[in-house]
Amino acid sequence: MPQVITNMPQVITIKSGDIVDQVKLSYQIPQIIEGIITRKIIETAIAEAEIKIETEEVQKAADAMRSKNRMGNPDETYAWLEKHSLSLEDFTELVYINLSRSKLAHHLFADQVEPYFFSHQIDYEGAVMSEIVLNDEDLAIELFCAISEGERSFADVAHQYIQDRELRGRGGYRGVLRRKDMKPEISAAVFAAKPPQLLNPIITSKGVHLILVEEIVPAQLDDKLRSDILSILFRSWLQRKIEEVEWFLEDSLTSSNPHSQR
Questions:
Q1: Considering the entire predicted model, what is its pTM?
Q2: Which residue spans of the chain are classified as CATH 3.10.50.40?
Q3: Is the peptide bond before 195 cis (omega within 30 degrees of 0)?
Q4: For 224-236, how does the pLDDT look when each residue is reduced to its tens digit (9 = 90+)?
Q5: Which of 63, 84, 85, 234 is most deeply buried (CB count within 10 A of its CB)?
Q6: For residue 124, what are the β-bridge partners?
Q7: Which helix (H) or strand (E) element contains residue 163?
Q8: DSSP 1
Q9: Mapping DSSP to helix (H, G, I), strand (E, B) and coil, where does residue 107 land?
Q10: Sign of the dihedral defined by the CA atoms of residues 134, 138, 142, 145, in that order
């Protein structure tokens, strides 16, 4: 009678040292150290500025984080915490850290957002556009002429030549792109256009671009852009602070380098 072999699941015990080893072998130590330094910089700055964080603010931020991570009920909350090896106290601390970062950013730079916007306003102009990128310049010129003369539509050409399925389904529509997110050679042509206008083929390192400019959107300091600029200013400040810090490891992570310092 043939022997029946039952495939039993392998049981693996993971120790805290295994996690540290994996972090090192994944080249993640520099990012971890920078994260620790960042947290300590924020803690010090919060204390020096005497910024108060109220219980109601923490609760509101915790509710927002639960909503963002789809923790709609206690079971989902505990499942998320278990997945990330966090306790309820860890979760509260995480919320507090994120809230501290946000409040410090507002404290330091809220009054600098508008001056930054006005000095960089041109970068935040936008254009509603559709795009097809080809590898053949002669083909691009041929298709440009066909579209310009009404022999073919831009959407028809996009459906035939765009490889990306999602972009092809949108007929090459890219939505609103800001000047700062475009290559210089493209932004120069786009923002000189008189919409709606099909631009002459533009050659870049990515290929030959056929671009239909549908609308130019003036820069507006809305809530999203205000938040983006605040993040830019705060990250720049943090980076300068990190570069100024001298740090050392109290306990060695390697046998060959018992002391690390910036």
A1: 0.77
A2: 126-217
A3: no
A4: 999 999 999 999 9
A5: 234
A6: none
A7: none
A8: -
A9: helix
A10: positive
Residue 167's SS3 state is: helix
CA distance 143 to 134: 10
CATH number attached to the domain at 126-217: 3.10.50.40
b (16+ CB within 10 A) / e for 236-255: ebbeebeeeeeeeeeeeeee
pLDDT in tens, 80-92: 999 999 999 999 9
Q: What is the pLDDT of residues 93-129, one digit of tens each?
A: 999 999 999 999 999 999 999 999 999 999 999 999 9
Tens digits of residue pLDDT in 8-56: 778 999 998 898 899 999 999 999 999 999 999 999 999 999 999 999 9
Question: Across the strands, what pairs with 129?
Answer: 175, 213
Look up residue 262 and give its amino acid.
R
- Cβ atoms of residues 81 and 88 within 8 Å: yes
Beta strands in 116-164 (DSSP E): 126-134
